[in-house]
Amino acid sequence: MAARDDGESGAEDESTVNYPAAYFSQFSPVSVDDMLSRIPGINLVLDASRGGFSNFNQQDRGLGGSARILIDGKRLAGKVNEAREQLARIAAEEVDHIEIIRGTSSGLDVQNVGQVVNVVLKRSASRSSIAAQAGMRRYEDGNVEPVGSVSLTGQRDNLNYLLSLSGQADYRVEDSLEVSTHGDGSLNEIIRFNRVFERNPYRFNSSLTWDIGSADRIAINALYNRNDPPNTLLRSITDHNGAAPMTSWERENVPATQANWELGGDYEHIFLDGSRYKFLFIVNDRDDETLRERWEFDSPQAEERKNLYLHNASSYQEQIIRTSYTFSFGEGQGLEFGVEGARTTQDTSLKLGRPLPGRPADPEVGGLFRVPLPNAVSTVSEDRYEAFAVHNWRLNPRMRLESSLVGEFSEITQSGDVDNSRDFQFLKPKVDFRFDISPSLQLQASLEKAVSQLGFADFSANTNQRDEDQDTIAGNPELEQEQIWQYNLNVDYRLPNDGGVLSSRLFYFDVGNSIGRIELFTPGPEIAATNGNVGDGSVLGFNFDASIRFGFLGLPQALATFGLLLQDSAIDDPLIGFERKVVPYDRGSFNFGFRHDVSRLGLNYGFNYRDRIDGNRPFFDIDNVLYIGAASDLGAFVEKSGIAGLTFRFEARNLRDHLEWRTRYRYSGYLRDDLLRETENFAVTTGLQFALTVRGNF
Tell me, which fold does domain 9-697 have in CATH? Predict the structure, then answer.
């Protein structure tokens, strides 16, 4: 790909697209995020969950060999503290160039699962810059909360550093209306509630890299994050079953704390023959605690009666080491092999209290009666090892083949109220073929076996986040991993003269051992369900994305984006007795956006709109089903730079004041018996939000 006057130039590898820093000067960027937002098709790289890649049942334990963002050609030794988090904190003036890597290579620090962004920083004996942001955000109820961050990036001799501190009030207001009708259509209840979330997160990040001569490199990364996300709720319940409507109230107070830290590091040595040895470690810790207490009362001045105490606490720790050796051989071939080990532990406890007449009060559950919960106290730990080999082969200047084989071996043990131990072994092959039909047109085909990682929270009793009428859900110590064969065919076309990107992807997933609800057999007449393996299913989908400049209309600095995801999936669910969709592969979604830079005025503005296709997200349970409707979001912004060297941004979110509709059908007995008992129609809105921020480099 030859160099072009518009600022985009080709690297030595024609499948890599190179944007030098000079290309972005016309946009007056403050951070790397500002630079990336001007690159056509960048959303295809940064949005790793698009088009069926996401999996609600897959927990991100361990590290793996893939990543989408590199800094100076290296992945960041972190999980929570990962490279995507750093892009808004690195000053634009620190960047030498940005690469969009579309190929695969043993010289790449990661496996390329699609495309990779590589941010290459300037090299000098001494440099530093400070990026700062301050502002405020206004919410629907008139509340105004501050936002702010400051970061220092630079280099001194062979030391590169990044230090950042950010804090903002993550405030949220939900207004909801629920209309409940009986199975015959007659009115049952009307429930209104107002919920206020008052999160107060702050975060410290650091990244230090030492180049020890030309052959050795050491990096250390650290993070500390604190977020206390309490919420309060006021609910009015109007009962229409009597001679006249009767209204009562409920109040909830939900204090909560969250804190986590992470420390990661890596070492790399390059031998004289060009081969590389890498060693990486990560340790992290997360603690969460939530208390939900509820009181009912007959009128705003009446005495309150506590009717619920629900306390949930968890502690999660992870230790990871990964080491590998990479070398080249033959003509255009390279091999990486290595091992990864990870130990993960989660401690959980759940306490439930309810007011049962004649039963003793327990101060440990708010003065209510302690309701016995099976499997409520649990420690789950996993020792997992992976041995991997990755072979890269440049078949010719236009064709590349990457193949890999991973052997996964793990032991999961559970202790506490339940004692259990199980061993698992999986082989996970992958083949990725890329054909550069031309410097602008690339075909990619891949086949991969993926194995989900089990959510430890499903092993023991936990709070039910989907249904407020069911406070807890039982655990399942016998849960097993999903196994998915993924088939992908992707065509990527870059328009001439940096005119845009068109990308289409066809995918088919063969899902084995899918996780959903299964019946929990308990003494007595009541029926209950928990998470379990329900069987095999399939997913078929198509993803199309377009990012086009309006140069053909004389507006080369105007960029429009469009995305469409269509999916169909099916699985026979024995619990409900009929075929349903495979969660989370619903019908799909779409989005479109526009950005226009007016460089001579130091001005840019635009909007983004996202929505899901109606009929999405049905969640089936043993005696009810919840349908979550479309969830649109329209946001717009205007940004002005060049005023005292600062950039001012005004932003609005949820401009349509979207109502998210949900419908739940409850049945008498099993859902499959189709005896409708109640229909609940919800409407929830979070209201409009407005933000004003000021950013600059110093």
Answer: Maltoporin; Chain A (2.40.170)
